[in-house]
Records
---
Amino acid sequence: MASLYVLVEYVFWVYSYGIREYFRAWMNYHWFLFHFFSVGVLLKSLFAPFHRLQEKAGRGLDIERFFERLVVNIMMRVVGFVVRVAVLTVALISEVFLFVAGGALFVLFLSSPVVLPVAFIAGFDLLFISIL
Amino acid sequence: MSKITDLFKNTVKDMDQLCIKTAQPDLFGAVKLDRLVTRRIRILFLRISLVVFIFSLAAYVFFQAARTIPSNVLSFAGDFNFLLLYAFLLISGSVLSALLFAEFFYTSSLKPNIVFIKEDLAFKINFDVAYIFYSTGFLLGFSDIDVKKFHRAIFDGGVFNFVLLRLGASPDDYSDFISRSGGGTLGKVDFIEALMASCLESDKNIIGISEIAGVLYEKDKTFEKFLFDLKINKKDLIGAASWVSNILGTQRAELFVWEKGHLSRIPGMAKDLGFGYTFELDKYSVDITGRSAPAHLGTRRKEIFAIEDALSKSGKANILLVADEGSGKHTVIEGVAKMIREGKIAPSMEHKRMVLLDIASIAASTKSKGNFEGLIIKIMNEAVSAGNIILVMEDLNYLVKSAYELGSDFISLIEPYLAGARIQAIATSDQIGFHKSLSRSGKVTKLFETVELEEVAEEKNLLIIEEVAEDIERTSDKMFTYQALKKVLEVADRYVVEGVMPEKAVNLLDELAYSGLSGEGKMILVGDVETFITRKTNIPLGAAEEEEKDLLLNLEKYLHERIVAQEEAIRVISESLRRTRAGLRDKNKPIGSFLFLGPTGVGKTETAKALADLYFKGEEAMVRFDMSEFQGEEGFKKLIGSFETGEPGILSTKVRERPYGIFLFDELEKSSKEILNLFLQILDEGFFTDFSGKRISLRETLIIATSNAGSNIIWDMLKSGSDISQVREKVIDAVRQEGKFSPELLNRFDAVVIYKSLGPAELVKVATLMLGEFVGKLKKQDITLEITEALINKVAKIGYNPVMGARPMRRAIADKVEGIIAKKILKGDLKRGDVFKFTDEEVNNL
């Protein structure tokens, strides 16, 4: 029976170390998303050509070649920008989701000592009502 | 330590020097939860509630949607009892959340807690120890420990049962021991002190099951006796407990799914978007940043950090890893890749890709210098423009050599790229290749920073193969005992001549697991390792079998069946072999080393042959060197190999082919001085270093050197009736003075054995033996030769030469006796089943 005391310990833990641990875990998942989507690299290279693809200048001055190269290189940068922004948008949506879901779970976590037993009992109550 | 004991015993006030920080460490939370509901059951319920919750949710969505769609088919949805669904959602949802939060609580509580503090040192306990402490109320005061209760708590904790299994013992035996044991008490303060001391000894601050087991072994004599009866010593007990502790520690670390170490293992996306494509490079390389690393990175931490440091400090830095095959080059490279993959690397190296160049496919697709250089330039250009490549080139020395054969200078080809900061490289080379070609190239030394891998310390080898054993156990149905692992390490080092440690041990483990050797159950025991090695190398390990025991105990008798006289030589050799098999010899030296001195034809070589036949099961176990062929500098190179030509030496090759047997060096005094010096090392340390710097071990060989030096003295002294021991001293003195062998060399032999010249009576015995051999040969053709005394005397007479001893006797039998019989067989005078006897006339004409 001494082991049942763990339920009381759990309640103490939730409002002390539990909160700290929860935030640490939450922050780690944010860190994970940041790295998973390579946010740092994508931001640093936001306007860089797509996969570094670009035309290199030849020898001498050729106006036609110059403009041709200019257009190609601008296109490559635009494509790179669009792809990176697309990935960053997915990353942002994931971050928002993590933030919201994490927040909701945190509320549940904090209220778990009360809410979970109540929900469990209410569930059985409803079960009996629906059967009877 | 004793000071603290006194403090405890005397006053309460002074106890602040050593205290129990808390009687309720966080770990107890996890222990209590486990005791309330075991983790296995919690996880089972978690899965069930998850499934019920998902189904309930899906049903809710379905019925809600069905209600909104006006359709006859879905009309039943309108009558559905949603209360039932809500009930399921609430029950399963609350159980699921409760179990999830419980797991979070459990895992968070699993980290080791500080429990004991002594002066400025804090000692933690891990979960296994917390279980025992909780069950016994260990932290509640300083009253004595009830030993029986303590053992019961250890048994109930379960971890120690795994330790016993790893030691080849049964947990049931332990349970019986606890039931039988009378109990008793142990002083708690002493016990805690011993735990702390044990931690300090192994330079750690976490008290685990290995410390508990070790201290109990020390303090509880009945427990020591119990383990002693199971042939388990303290060192093995602690070793096995540490191994089990490490395994459980790794498994528990997997529970921390929210920790960065765990999350970083999930491969990211879009990492390459900021970097260039590498189509051509990808065709000829493998990305190693993405693949999983081998287990034993810990043993190479120093080198991994050194490479990270060098590569991150300067973009121009490149690394050349120098080490022999199997000594951990891959581990180091995989370690750097793992750090990049897990994001635990210096910022300048984040997002780098380590690609291993596939030299074989480059070589296969390029036939000419032009093709080769074109492809390399293309690959290098791509790698440079990609901007995040660390090129890994294995066996750079061979790559340079292959390129050279095509007429290309590989180093000059890659120099402009590697000299810049846009690409980095890690190349590898073995010791020979490095010293032979790379270290002499100025460009290589300018471009690459050399990192030489030191040999892994012996105790770390055990950690490595413990981890490898875990991997092997996952894929095979076998389990290794701790003692078996130790045996593997020992025998791999001693008896596997090829390769280096720990690779030799790792390969041996692998072979053992899939050999199908262990007939009884799944456990691989020490005996299985010994049997396997004996089968593989013919080296008898383990307790000497009956037949072998008989041979060893009667070796003199068996040898005398082939060797006439020479009692001293046979006695010395027999004693040496008996010592070896009883485990009394120095394992860092050859099995035995003897210098046989004496005239030609007195049985020196024959002794070696007989020994090979009897003990090493066949004369082919004897490797013979005529040392007169190894004279001067050339002779030395011929023996140990030549650095210039890369040719391996004869001795190195023969030892690799036959690591266990007799090495006979005939006429040692005729070899060069360098070779005699080489023998100093061989006889003293049991190995020599070949031309490439590799150690070649002769520790499982019996070394016999023969020499005719001092023959005249032996002859003269024995003729004048001197005693053999006097002769020995005189001969050794003479040999030393003549400068044939240095005193150091003579002293290093286990024994210098004098072979006396043979007298007429002994020659008759030799003739009898040799004729006996010939009779045996004829018997195979079903022809019986009757040997008469006249024949023996005649052979003894014609087969003796004062200079050559009994050596011409075999020739005489072959030429004369065999000749006559051969003619008779050919003429048809002798047929199968005939009995033949030489007439007196035939004997006289021999």
---
Amino acid sequence: MILPDMACSHGSAAVTGAPVHVLPSRIRVTGGSPVSRTRESLIAGARSVAPIIIGIVPFGLVAGAAVTAAGLGLAEAVGMSLLVNAGASQIAATALFSEGAPLLVTVGTALVINARMFIYSTSIAPVLAPEAGRWRALLGHPLVDQSYAVTMTVGRYRDDISLVPFYVGSWLVLAIVWQISNIAGALAGAFVPASWSLDFAVPLVFLAMLVPALKFRADVEAAIATGIAAAILVPVLPMQTGLIVAIVIGMVWGAARHHEHPAEEVDV
Amino acid sequence: MSERTEFWIVIFALATGTFLLRSLPLWLYGHRPAPRWLERLLRHVPAAALTALVVPASLYTKTDGVYELAPARIIAALAALFVALRWRSVVATLATGMVVLWVGQALLGG
């Protein structure tokens, strides 16, 4: 078992008065040393993204292969992944650049694709910032779809970990796997056959994470509104803007409905 | 300006812009309390964002910027959704979705 059972993370992990020996063995109660708690939180974060790493390999390969196909080298592929750290926008920017688009259009398009991270950052700030202190602006860099998702749907409900190292640990694994597949793609081209459809692993893991995020009736309605909007808008709106519009529609719908049914829990 | 230099300009501009997008809200948090309407909006971001990432990738394949309905993906995503709702296991959801997709692609050819 790679990932702690998500249903369990709301329940038994949070039992405070239970004797230690009845807790599931994977939830270790540390002796209170801050160093070991930080290390265990890093490892817990790293483990929480384990199921997703197979899915990011094809994207890393494509991103690396695109850079060398555009006539650029390994330094550009590695540098771009280290500095930008946002795969979809990297692939888009590289494609536009190699098609000869103006630099402003190239950068502008890629930034629109990353605009959802502004929403993620606003949403994760109340969870991360109180633990993070004055260097919290640096915590923006590790904010990717997967680290956001595991921190918001799993990490923050666990009281046996510190959230900042959990979050950083989840990103470190993603960044290392991404960089390795990125380099492999830059050197050898995208050699995993597209027919294996390994890219499908990414939405599947997000789907598994979505279920525990549906706690209230308004969450379910927000998800349905977003899903309908995304199904219609993503194929027709340019530059992946359909994604952001769909998220905003879901947010607004959920907020409006939450007002009408403030505390209706659902059992999904 | 060489092509390399131009690409490094793209990298630095994109890196700076992306860093600002994801860091500003974290950095500014706590300077004044978030208004209630903002809190209400943000409560549903995880559900909305995950759905937005799942749905298009489960309905369509994209080749050269053209979206096409992908029946095998739709069936695989529905099977995975059932497993996710029933057992709440990431590994089981992932395994079910991939196996059903491969079987579906073998039978439906795509």
